[in-house]
TrEMBL record:
GO terms for biological process: NAD+ biosynthetic process. InterPro entries: Cyt_trans-like (IPR004821), NMN_Atrans_arc (IPR006418), Rossmann-like_a/b/a_fold (IPR014729). It catalyses: beta-nicotinamide D-ribonucleotide + ATP + H(+) = diphosphate + NAD(+). This is Nicotinamide-nucleotide adenylyltransferase. GO terms for cellular component: cytoplasm.
Length: 179
């Protein structure tokens, strides 16, 4: 029995992430999906909460035919213990999947096998580009699973992103200008 682990911020979960899930489930018996930066929301780079992303991801993989668990993982200040932090929050796993160089390095230093995956249609399928399209009122819903667009609509996620970006609310808060 092999259980895989795949972490991302999923802001939002898009068709490239789904393609990576499809690639992974050919190789594993069970899959854990980590919602990274679970403690971060309401910024232009990370507009959606952990709970909102749990809904997006859970619905987007519900037809996958291996058992799949969605686990929020908060960031911590010390990279050296980040993998232990994940292990304390997640079902145990045998292999991690990532295309993120820091993530690969941290897992490998802890002796965990890491497999990468091809980038799928990366010109179109990139979170930052999809968020830019939401801001510009450009077409974006064809780049995410239908259920993800529905979830984002349910909590008025695009409206939130525009408000945050327009007023730069998160940046002013982070820089202390609102204190
Ligand atoms: N189109 C894609 N095909 C395959 N893997 C992808 C694709 N886009 C992102 N990934 C991988 O999925 C993981 C999580 O990515 P992440 O949530 O940061 O998405 P992203 O599209 O890179 O978003 P952002 O632009 O917001 O950083 C990373 O390992 C990343 O390399
Ligand atoms: N020290 C830490 O908290 C630490 C280290 C490396 C990656 N991460 C997180 O892992 C996730 C990696 O996903 P991305 O590939 O989407 O960047 C992000 O949420 C990132 O913040 C956290």
């Amino acid at each position: 029995m092999t259980r895989g682990f795949y972490i991302g911020r999923f802001q939002p979960f898009h068709n490239g992430h789904r393609a990576m899930v499809d690639h992974i489930v050919d190789e594993v018996d069970e899959l854990v999906l980590g919602i990274g930066s679970a403690d971060v929301s309401h910024t232009v780079r990370n507009p959606f909460t952990a709970g909102e992303r749990v809904m997006m991801v859970s619905k987007a993989v519900r037809d996958v035919d291996v058992p799949t668990y969605v686990v929020p993982i908060e960031d911590i200040d010390r990279n050296a213990v980040w993998v232990s932090h994940i292990q304390s929050m997640s079902p145990s796993f045998d292999v991690a999947y990532s295309n993120n160089p820091l993530v690969v390095q941290l897992f490998e230093e802890r002796g965990i096998e890491v497999r990468d995956s091809p980038m799928f249609d990366r010109d179109r399928l990139e979170g930052s580009d999809i968020r830019d399209r939401m801001l510009a009122d450009d077409t974006w819903t064809d780049r995410v699973p239908d259920v993800v667009a529905e979830v984002i609509d349910e909590f008025s996620g695009v409206q939130r992103l525009r408000t945050i970006a327009k007023d730069d609310v998160s940046e002013r808060w982070e820089s202390g200008e609102d204190d």
